[in-house]
Amino acid sequence: MPGYREISLVTGGLPLAAALALSSPGRAQDRGGASEVAVADEGREIYEQICQACHMADAKGGGVPGAMFPALAGNPRLADHDYASIVVLKGRGGMPWFSGVLTRPQIAAVLNYVRGHFNTYPDAVTLADLDRISTANPPVPDCNCGH
Amino acid sequence: MTDPVLPTSRRDLLTMIGKVGGGAALYQAMTVMGHAAESQFTGPPGLSGAKPGASVLVLGAGLAGMLAAYELTKAGYKVQILEAQNRAGGRNMSLRGGDTVTEIGSVQKVGFAPGNYLNPGPWRIPHHHRSVLHYCKELGVELEPYIQNNTNTFVHRKAAFGGKPQRYRDVVTDWKGHVSELLGKALNAGALDQAVTAEDKAKLLEAMRSWGVLDKSMAYVKSEKLGEQRGWDRPPGGGVNGAPIPNDPFSLSDTLDSKIWEALGFFAEHVMQPSMFQPKGGMDHIGKAFQARVGKLIRYNTRVSKIAKDERGVTASWTDAKTGMTGETRADWMVCTIPATVLGQIDIQVSEAKKVAIKALPYGNSVKIGLEMKRRFWETEDAIYGGSSFTDAAIGLVSYPSHGAFSDGPAVLLGAYPFGLGAYILAGMTPEKRIEAALEQGSVFHPKHYKSEFRSGVSLAWSRMPWILGCCATWTEESRAAHYQDLVAMDGRIVLAGEHCSYYGCWQEGALLSSLDAITRLHQRASAA
Fold first, then answer.
1. Has residue B446 been placed in a domain?
2. What backbone torsions phi and psi does residue B442 show, to the nearest 5 degrees?
């Protein structure tokens, strides 16, 4: 399929820990089949394939009081694109990291889609930004994630 | 003499196995060497002699919480349980006709025929999960065999065999045959003469010939003997055409494309080895059995918003999700089994290290889809009785019911069970689209009947469950080293429990072992206080 890249969750040269994070978290856990799904390269499609499983199709998040997925739409914290990048690269709270699962271009594409489509932040996340953050390896910023 | 290649100690050997074979291989090796225990369960804790009037507040009425309440009550504590849902059992759950699945963003009504069910959470119990098995027996939960291994199921990958599913048995037999042939060639070429003695070389050649079903010249080719393992073009019969006709093995390249070693590795894991069991009639019989003992202690629909403690006790502040009423419940001690995804959003008065640990624990996502079919065509047409067919599509697998073989009427298949990307993709769909996708992808195994015999379906995406926001905790070696002890350490009067507080993540065994450990420490602390 043109425009798609086969990402193997189990092999494909991913760091073992990262691969395990999504395919078989922890040793010896119960799990089913090892899907190897094509992840899109385009931001909107990546959002639909992955992010909306939790943040919902309208990016407004959801849940009940005290147990929420944060809204990504109209989210003032995403104005800082480094913040958004760190969370996707390293995960935070209940959210797993996607470094090693999505490629850098895929991470940039989906961040730019979320920041541009569900918000109106004009500045783009670049591959250089992601490289810079990965090298600096800053701690995951704290916040009251669900609210 | 030191050999630079061979490991000099057991630890070196394990490190080497870990590097070469990955975590699964390492765990296998550790198990063989007696390092990794099957389960640490040694029997019920037998706690007794609680101080008169001593009380424990348990947060969460899943298996960990209810077991804590059950054993602490026996020990003499006054126990109360607060549960966010309107039901007990947590992830221990079965869905039947008439049930409602409420996800964030959707509501489904289950349309299964009477007697049919889907276990959307835990579904199988390995023979060595002794805590679960013990309490099933103690509480009178009837178990039946769960069929884990079935060589007559299918394996499917888009990039193998032109996308055509093959029987697991055929591909495994060919894998074994080709690897044997290659090892035979290497041995006969003298390539391993430095590594093995002449005597062992002879034994290995004999072993490869027999194990791989090779011919006299050590080639893996079609033969009657191979037919006895691989099956036949024409099976043995009676009379004039009784002689069987063997079929052709797949090529080495085709066999490699199937990545069949991944399935072999999966089944080699200790937790995936038979015998395995399931409660008769649905996994939720375990939760219901605990509920029968401790149900009267549970306050339902009670969402905890704050957890505080002082030198004399603990206080949970809560809101009743139905009435909006707020309240506080106080006790001397607390066992908190709230999943980390939710606990991380609650104002909790514990050490900074424990707060960090709670927030450093992401949860994996998983989706299960139950497809009720009008009849058991996988049995009548394909001779498949239990076990799973694996695919690299988003659904991950199709698993066949272990119970009710040969019966008429509708039966429920597990039509999807992926973690990871497959699970994200399915979770992000509407329930209707999930069923469509499951029917489409599962049709690869049973193209003639899969769609036409479909009767009703239900899905459960764990990331969309508002009371847990995920399936189960994702630990890594690094996060274990940094946070595990902080997470499980007793903090004044508060101790956490649940699968996330165990080395048996995502298994009920982990929830129970964690709970037993937590209440044992709590009881020691309370007795000393």
1. yes
2. -75, -20
Cα B258 from Cα B253, distance rounded (Å)? 9
Contact B420 A22 (CB under 8 A): yes
Task: Give the model confidence (pLDDT) of B34-66 as tens digits.
Answer: 444 568 899 999 999 999 999 999 999 999 999
Given B304, B419, B478, which is nearest A23 (Cβ)?
Answer: B419
Cα B278 to Cα B97, B143, B262, B281, B349: the distances in Å are 20, 5, 25, 9, 39
Task: Please check whether residues B243 and B175 belong to one and the same domain.
Answer: yes
Residue numbers of the domain that contains B224 = 160-251
Residue of A nearest to B125 (CA): A30
Of A26, A39, A50, nearest to B474 by CB-CB distance is A26
Could you give the angle at which helices B431-442 and B420-427 cross, rounded to 10 degrees? 130
Range of the domain at A128: 42-136
% of residues, chain B, pLDDT over 70: 93
CATH number at residue A97: 1.10.760.10
The structure's pTM equals 0.90
* Cβ contact, residue pair A67, B342, below 8 Å: yes
CA triple B396-B401-B407, angle to 5 deg = 145
Q: Angle between the B260-268 and B10-32 helix axes, to the nearest 10 degrees?
A: 80
Report phi then psi at B418, rounded to 5: -100, 155
Indicate whether A112 belongs to any domain: yes
Whether A54 contacts B423, CB under 8 Å:
no
Longest dimension (CA), chain B: 89
Residue B103 has pLDDT above 50, yes or no: yes
B469 vs A69: CB contact, 8 Å cut-off? yes
pLDDT in tens, B177-211: 999 999 999 999 999 999 999 999 999 999 999 99
Shortest CA distance from A46: residue in chain B: B425
What average pLDDT is seen over chain B? 94
